[in-house]
Amino acid sequence: MTHSGGKPHAVGDRGQRYEVTYMDPGGKRCVFGWSETWVGADDMVKSIDLHPVWEDGLIRDRNADGKGHATNG
Asked: How many angstroms separate the Cα of 5 from the Cα of each of 1, 8, 9, 13, 27?
């Protein structure tokens, strides 16, 4: 059972602070996921580093300056 009783709903970050992205083989930046903690986001970047074709894992702190701040984990 989902939080909406099985009805369609938007899936996404639910207000989590850190957004983790990577570069795909075609040069497009893609969202890997979101985390409430830096440690969780850093673990995601480590997973990206292990992937054979994904590159340049970045953590963006969406609370840093109102616009977010991208940094390498």
From this structure: 6, 9, 10, 19, 38
